[in-house]
Amino acid sequence: MTRRTTNRGLLTLASLVAALAGWTGAAALLDLPALLFPSPAAVAEAFAANADTIAGNVAYTAAEVAVGWGLGVAVGAALAVAIVVSPTASRVGYPVLVVVRLVPVVVFLPLLILLLGPTLASRTAIAVLVTFFPVVLATVEGLRSVDEARLAVLATVGASRWQRLRYVRLPDALPAVFSGLIVSAPIAVQTVVLAEYLVGNHGIGAALRATAARFETPLLFAYVLTLIALSLLLFGAIRAAEAAVRWDDPDSGVAEGGGAVAADLPGRPTTNALAAAATFGAAALAWQAVSAVFPRDLSVFLPAPLGVLGTLVDTAGLFVGAGATTLGTFALGWGGGAIVGLALGAVVGLLPRLRGVLGGQFVAARSVPDVAIVPLFLVWFRVGPSTAALLVAVAAFFPVAVGAADGAGRLPARQRDVLRSVGAPWHRVLAVRARYALPQLFAGCKLSVVAGFTATVIAEWFLTSDGLGVLLLQGMTDTNPRLTYAAAFVLAVLGMALYGAVAALQRRLTW
């Protein structure tokens, strides 16, 4: 264990002690009813009184996360290896990567619940779906970012493709692989808990829903803290595994283990858009052809594409209005969160000591699922658009802050020495720093757009009464699959458009 790692552990412990002390002091000073703001003692009492129930729900959720996340990691790693070693697999798998990246995956949750029912299978499927993308993309990036000289040496001695993969590509890919694991882990936790929150009868998500409905705020805090602890425990386990198998310094970057490595798709934005459109078109044609031979009972779960298109056309005004509401909530929340994240991340990145103190805290905080905040918002705030925008801002903040902090610290030493030698004014130095920061900043913005749009849908499910998210959930609860699939399609198009807009802006500004 390095000295830096020890110091970071002590810093984290000190932060937790300070937060607990601040919470205790605020509860005593404000003297609010426990319904609104319980003290740590009241939360501890509620935890002790319900320890057995909490433990059972945690074990249930942890098992679901382990199965879904484990399968997603296995699928992602296998697909990544296939893409690297096989051009055919790359051509087939690339459109799948594009669709999974550009479409907010939370959109698939109601669809999977319709198809598979509110079962372990649907929760596992969504966990696999959200997990495999960051793993496969990070692993592909790692496998392709290798020392070509070492590969050439092995080729000259007749090493097979598998030997080159095993002895060079895989070891060199480990940092990127672990980055993908850390990005995927909190997403898997969030989607499993969200599925339990919506339709589950067991697990942390179902317990959060029931506790919030009874306004048992101390117990609600206990469950939220337990969920945060579960997420951070998974984060810590991955970091410990990373430290055990890596031989270089795992503390070399601000955005270590969870930076923006898994944010970007390879290829041009236009190519990505065409690949996504072609994939959707081919899937729709196959879906329409197969639906002709389906028994009619299956239309309750899987309506034909032409039926979904008819719903979109017949109720176009409804979807236009809901779409405008969704975009408004996203714009307000994402704009506020991104501005704060950019400012704080830039300060952290420009101050080396502060970067060492808060860099890891940013990453750890991003491992907390957004859904953990929803029950507290239901208790603290009035349900409405402003509360929804606040949830979106929280989701958007961390990826931008991590990207800005990482990017602001990436000015090469040689460039820094040249600027000092010519006495460049501070604003010129900042302009040069901005040039080197743009790639990481835009990668963080892409992650932020996806996280913010996902949070917008979640916020509309629980904190508002309007928007595409409401239509999506309404179609599922009312067993109106055409409405559900139509809302999912519009959300997918908007999500891809937002991601594509950021990618296009990046290509214009990055030089």
From TrEMBL:
Q: Name one GO biological process term.
A: transmembrane transport
Q: GO terms for CC? A: plasma membrane
Q: Which residues cross the membrane?
A: 66-85, 92-114, 120-140, 219-238, 273-294, 306-325, 331-351, 387-405, 441-463, 483-505
Superkingdom of this protein's organism: Archaea
User: Pfam families, from UniProt?
Assistant: BPD_transp_1 (PF00528)
Q: Where in the cell is it found?
A: Cell membrane
What is the membrane topology listed in the Swiss-Prot or TrEMBL record?
Multi-pass membrane protein
Where it mainly occurs, coarsely classed, is membrane
| Domain called ABC transmembrane type-1: residue spans | 54-238
UniProt keywords (A-Z) are: Cell membrane, Membrane, Transmembrane, Transmembrane helix, Transport
Instruction: Tell me the protein family, please.
Output: Belongs to the binding-protein-dependent transport system permease family.
Q: What is this protein called?
A: ABC-type nitrate/sulfonate/bicarbonate transport system permease component
